[in-house]
Design goal:
The chain is α+β, with helices and mostly antiparallel strands and 418 residues long. It has 14 helices and 14 strands. The chain has two domains: 226 residues, Transferase(Phosphotransferase), domain 1 (Orthogonal Bundle); 162 residues, Kinase associated domain 1, KA1 (TATA-Binding Protein, 2-Layer Sandwich), CATH 3.30.310. The protein starts with a helix and ends in a 13-residue tail after the last helix.
Amino acid sequence: MLDKEMRVHWTLKHVNVLEFINAFVVEPDSSTAYHPGLYMLLEIAAGGDLFDKIAPDVGVGEDVSHYYFSQLIAGLNYIHGEGVCHRDLKPENLLLDAAGTLKISDFGLCAVFKLKESGRTRKLSERCGSLPYVAPELNSDTPYDAEPVDVWGSGVILFTMLSGNTPWDEPTRKSFEYARYMTGQCFNEDPWDRWGEDVLSLITGMLAIDPSQRLTLSDVFSHPWVKRRSQIANQGPVVLAERLTESLRRSGDLAIVNPEGMPDKDGNLNVDQEGDTVMLSAQYQSQFTQSLLLFSQTQSGRRYTPHLTRFYTSIGPNLLAPLIQEALTELEVKFKPAVKVQDNNGHDSAVLKIRIGGYDRRKLMFKGVIELEDFEHGGQPGAFCFMHRDQGNPISWRQLWKSIIMSPSVEPHVLRKR
């Protein structure tokens, strides 16, 4: 499976596809700091997850959605032209580079459905993908056409950008929301009733239950909503970043990510004691990433943190950790009690780590780590807390982040920009 993923991904070269650069095997060797295994070298997506910047149940406006949806279908059209079906389009597989350009990633479930030389195609039979994004024809044992599956996934992604959530848990009658979609009962309800006829006809055309009636990518490109001129394409990276994070600003999330007294988006990048940020600055720092506030002020300097799921508190890590664990218990999230992170020499550091996991409200698994470290704010001891997601939907991860922050045990200690 991994070999197929690498061979296919390596051949794909497009501005909206995360580039596969190389792969190498590290053998067991005590003289190297790398763990034994197979390493894939990929293009740096310094802007992080697209959906990490979107407020849950709010989404982004039509202008930003149009901008990124246009890039998604451009990349997808190229992939299909190479005879490849992605089959796992979902928020966590859409990344941004340092300029804010969308990159389609993770070809682990892809399939070759067409030979470029002859144009000969084949139907696919493997059942795969994540339930909220998978097309309904995959519910049967009948072989299916490849391209309509990705069109469906792109339609779900457009819905999710506009609304801040997926339309349903899964495309079966077991899902209350999907059953209402099948009967048309949903269209007078939020969020369907937020949108005009143009975007609604595009979404429903891409989400036609019968794949033979579904819009093709060619149909999508010629749709009036897609053909309209972009309102933000030429306004520069700073405006793009501000428009992308507008819903987070309105919800107050950015005031938590970058509280009072922290460097603003124009702050200079500091060099920490180990010199790591010198290396990171050239690869990660740009007008776009700085405007997204992807650099956190920590005790050792300013650090690149690609996710906007962090916060600062007025109490230190040792006091904060049990309060977070109390919040996790109330939220019914499984966790392993806080432990000290070991440094490169195998010694305990001052950083605490809480490993967490569970299922979100869409029944998708999530896993990740909460790290807490000392941070002095205004001459007083405090903590810097960063939530790193290993698996799961970025929107659900943001919901968990907000739930922890707003929990009765943690909220009184969270610093904010007033």
